[in-house]
Model the fold of this input.
Amino acid sequence: MSSETPLLKVDAVQRFFDVSKPWLNRVLANEPKLLLKAVDDISFSIRKGETFSLVGESGCGKSTVARLIVGLYPTSSGSIEFEGTDFSTLSKRNQMAPLRRRMTMIFQDPYTSLNPRWRVRDIIAEPIRAFGLTNTGGISGSRLQIFNRVAELLEQVGLSAADGDKYPHEFSGGQCQRISIARALASEPDFIVCDEPTSALDVSVQAQILNLMKNLQRELELTYLFISHDLAVVYHVSDNIGVMYLGRLCEIADKETLFTNPRHPYTRMLFNAIPDINMSGKERIPVSGEVPNPIEPPSGCTFHPRCPIANERCKRERPELQIVDSHSQVACHAIEEKRNMEVHFI
Amino acid sequence: MSVPLLQINNLSIEFNTRRGNLVAVEDISFEVAEGEIFGIVGESGAGKSLTGKAIIGLLEAPGRISGGKILLNNERIDNLPYEQMRRLRGKSIGMVFQDPLTSLNPLYTIGRQLIETIQTHTNHTATQAKNRALELLREVGIPAAEKRIDQFPHQFSGGMRQRVVIALALCVNPKLIIADEPTTALDVSIQAQILTLLKNLCRKHGTAVILITHDMGVIAETANRVAVMYAGKIAEIGPVREVVQNPQHPYAQGLMASIPVIGRKMKYLAQIDGSMPRIAERPSGCAFHPRCPHAIELCNKQIPELLNKGKTKAACLLFRNGNP
Ligand SMILES: Nc1ncnc2c1ncn2[C@@H]1O[C@H](COP(=O)(O)OP(=O)(O)OP(=O)(O)O)[C@@H](O)[C@H]1O
Ligand SMILES: Nc1ncnc2c1ncn2[C@@H]1O[C@H](COP(=O)(O)OP(=O)(O)OP(=O)(O)O)[C@@H](O)[C@H]1O
Ligand code: SF4
Ligand SMILES: [Mg+2]
Ligand SMILES: [Mg+2]
Done:
């Protein structure tokens, strides 16, 4: 992790959701307000040109982080900096737009993320119009320019210019995801947040989309924040990886380090649960317990009820991410104290 | 050799629609032995769920079995009258779906659902049935079963619900359980728990399981044998290890190569261009031929049959006359 300014810096970001019952019911029942800490004090940074992935099980807060970064949700606290500029310091729309243009998002469900009543051409052209990305004067001139640009984008993602006339329902899931990618590229971003972009697709189609994304990254020097719960996909695409559990990051490491030497007990548990396609016949330790209710997370380290090496301190005190070496950061008391873990993990 | 528990012979499933007959599943055959976990994998729309539904008699109109036979313990079950099929379903075949909520009634406690199912199929008294229900809940790994038995489905997590559904399927000691994407909606750590549970149940009770999934990792980890389906047909069938590590059919080869594997460094994944054709647009001959890197002249004319190839069987014209 070098000293140059990262493209994106997320610093101590929190996002809470109010999940209380309606006000009146709550007051009548004399219940306190309920806050769900979807993202609770998360920090990481992404360098230009890299793919940084977030993994973790359902509900751990991955999509919330994605939405915070692209500005779909405001943060409850903390800061998000893009090329050193803190978004929260930009109050005016016209200051925000040039930065916002440079980051876009691709969603998991290719069908619902595309407006079914719009032609593909208009779907892709929308960001071009919204950000005024044409440079010739005159309406007809810019119309032609948009037309050509959309055709170029369609071809770039492996579709044909003629597909612009069609509607989303005329395409398969994989093709719809290509359309989403074309739309994301339309604003000429350098940073794309990809929230489970292939989770709804079959593996053979997933391979096509992942290859396309890799190609585009190389050609256009894109930076990706990639979100997935599929560890094999994450292994394939990432440079660096953050593992999340209940709204917090428990480990950040480069890919090779994380997969060859996972340190946090949760990371180890997660890796142990992956179906083994190599059929090495390795003995697995059955994973115990489930993800707790995020509204009432466990005290201290929220992983302690499932952790085989938890002790009293773990129940009491929340571990913070600490730099272990130049490759990884881990939030675990056992690692800090060098507790013996090997008896519990193979 | 003894008769396999389940035999599927030349099964075809059709939809009669206004636009004509659509053949969704075409001429598939396989066998499942007692205590075996038999996997069915394939992409969305390949015909996996329809196959499972046909076995358990749950095909919905306009879908129907248009050819072939299904035999359980050497007796035909594909042409049973409704009432008999319903009883058989209760007694011999259990079903676990992707979404546990489709199998659970949200208005009843899980105890009531288990007890009713047990009493429908046995002559247990209420107390005996309740004890059996508790035993089942413990067997599928529900902690504090005495307390949980009086709770409603919404009070359970996704993984716990799927355990309850498995308990429901086990109520009657079925010989066969059809599990259609039982872990697809679950997190990996919970998935691992459910798969371990299924494996242990098979081992312990000799229950056979047909495990339907699109996740090759799940199959590799769990099944003994597997059928890879493509466009309504079986492309390759054989022992899991062979099919995963040494697939013969060009589609199966492409499929395996497109799966990212931890520890395997590669810039790009192998990719099969195009996508599986929709049911109404299936090409002539071998349905895979437009995407197949090895296709020959014959491939758009002749429908390949499953032929022995190495330790598996593959439906590919390259292997006719013992070639290549
Ligand atoms: N708008 C919202 N209002 C209330 N709670 C929310 C909201 N959005 C998310 N949450 C909660 O925040 C937590 C994190 O959700 P998030 O969608 O970020 O998880 P995720 O890691 O993306 O999960 P998945 O893998 O299922 O997509 C969950 O407990 C979720 O229920
Ligand atoms: N009622 C119907 N009318 C016409 N075609 C249908 C009907 N139901 C299913 N089909 C078609 O039958 C084919 C096989 O469907 P099936 O549900 O068995 O697929 P699957 O392999 O289980 O896929 P998935 O992985 O998406 O569950 C599909 O192409 C589907 O479009
Ligand atoms: S801090 Fe404690 S409970 Fe948390 S993971 Fe580390 S050892 Fe386990
Ligand atoms: Mg999400
Ligand atoms: Mg299905």
In short: Residues A 17, 19, 36, 38, 56, 58-64, 229, 294 surround adenosine-5'-triphosphate (ligand 1) (CB under 6 Å). Residues 47-71+89-238 of chain A form a domain with the Rossmann fold fold (CATH 3.40.50.300). The mean pLDDT of chain A is 89. The interface with chain B takes residues 57-58, 172-175, 202-208, 210-211, 214, 229, 231-233, 235-236, 259, 269-270, 272-279, 284, 286-287, 290-291 of chain A (CB under 8 Å).
